[in-house]
Amino acid sequence: MMRGFGIIAATLIGFFTSAQAEESIVLGLNQSEVSISTDFTGSEIIIFGAVKRETPIPDGPELEVVVTVSGPSKPVVVRRKEKKFGIWVNTDAVEVDRAPSFYAVASSGPLQDVLNRIEDLRYKVSVPRAIRSVGAPMTIKDSSAFTNALVRIRTTAHQYQQNESGVTVDQQTLFRANVQLPAALVEGAYDTRIFLTRGGVVISQYQTLIDVRKVGLERWLYNLSRNQPLIYGLLSLAIAVAAGWSASAAFALLRR
Questions:
Q1: 3-class SS at 213?
Q2: Contact by Cβ (8 Å): 92, 79
Q3: Contact 73, 101 (CB under 8 A)
Q4: What is the domain count for the chain?
Q5: Would the pTM count as exceeding 0.70?
Q6: Structural domain that includes position 231
């Protein structure tokens, strides 16, 4: 009996290994750079490509495609608020070790069908897997609630996205995905991954970067705040004083 299971497992491994060797990704992007200016309201990335094969389309499960776009990651402190004596105050806090500033997952079908749980754990594809949180204090029993809250807040702000019909696949060869980038983007390199799967197993993957940079006045102010914080602070103060004086003068004229 055990020998029979071994033969079946070896056959499945051989099938997927063969498929992986026969199918690879040829990728294209409508833009590899995103410029953030003062009037930036968001952008759309179109990811398209084709599956390169040396042999005919293999028999078995149909080809599925998963696309992820991940912004720069950094630690995030998530705090719990409770109402005490009529005032909302911070109580418990958990530091999430690493959370992407932006994360989008697009797939050609329901993610649980396109990618099995083991492959998701291995490649960290789904939104919860992309977040690393292992350092919660021992006094907090429900640390997962803090991670869930972070996902919920960023999903509402469109910083975390999961679109299970976001990839279209044509004839198991051509594919296309649209990813919406919100206005509040963090500058940096956005890691873009494409996975080909069959039967929930990854058979091929491709990785590239999308460069997100501030330009124009936005870039100048950003550099000034980092390189010359004193001058940036004085400039901000001067602008605030000028704005206040202008508003006061305008009201004085209106009252005459």
A1: strand
A2: yes
A3: yes
A4: 2
A5: yes
A6: 215-256
CA angle 208, 114, 52 (to 5 degrees): 50
Give the helix/strand (H/E) hosting 45.
Answer: strand 43-53
Question: Closest Cα partner for 203 from 34, 60, 20?
Answer: 20
pLDDT, tens digit (0-9, with 9 covering 90-100), for 137-153: 666 777 788 889 999 99
**Whether residue 81 is found in the same domain as residue 179:** yes
- Report the Cα–Cα distance between both ends of the chain, in Å, rounded: 98
The answer to whether 210 and 29 are in contact (CB under 8 A) is: yes
- Cβ proximity of 196 and 65 under 8 Å: yes
Residue in 218, 177, 214 with CA at minimum distance from that of residue 65: 177
Helix axes of 229-255 and 216-227: crossing angle, nearest 10 degrees = 120
Q: Please report where in the chains the tokens 């897997």 appear, as a residue.
A: 129
Whether residues 66 and 127 fall in one domain: yes
Largest CA distance in the chain: 98
